[in-house]
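I trust your eye. Have a critical look at both lines of this record:
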Amino acid sequence: MLPLRAILWTVLLPGTVAVYLPSVILRRTEAPAPGAWGAPPSVGLLLMIAGTAILLRCIRDFAVVGRGTLSPIDAPRKLVVAGLYRYVRNPMYVGVTMVLVGEVLFFKSLALLEYTVVWFGVVNLFVLFYEEPTLKRRFGESYDRYRRSVGRWIPGRRFDTTQ
């Protein structure tokens, strides 16, 4: 059942944020069609591909290592500090942000840029006021050690899993 739950939550959460809502925004605004393959659209496409790869790797790690999904109501049972989580605490959100920024560049859409900024602000508040306190309560000192070692948004030093 875990693989099916992971697919369901992937479609519902990042699928809504990175695919459905941007498509609604693009339909409702006067966004130009992707232009000639100059720097911004090609960079945008690369960001979308890289962000999707990051997201899929993290979803896999949540299922395989953490035995859960990306949903707060079906969260991993074990603290995930493997894979990309060794370098940044929120790589899944970083991946989705990369997809959204890629869409901004690809479609040259100011409306998508505004949406991306608002989305990231909401995500930051969610992480600060829900996710981090919840992880602290669930995983205690091991989460504190992880939090002190690995940055929230910017990849940095690698977390030493042997501690």
Remarks:
- The chain has one domain: 2-149.
- The chain is about 65% helix and 0% strand.
- Residues 54 and 95 are 5 Å apart (CA to CA).
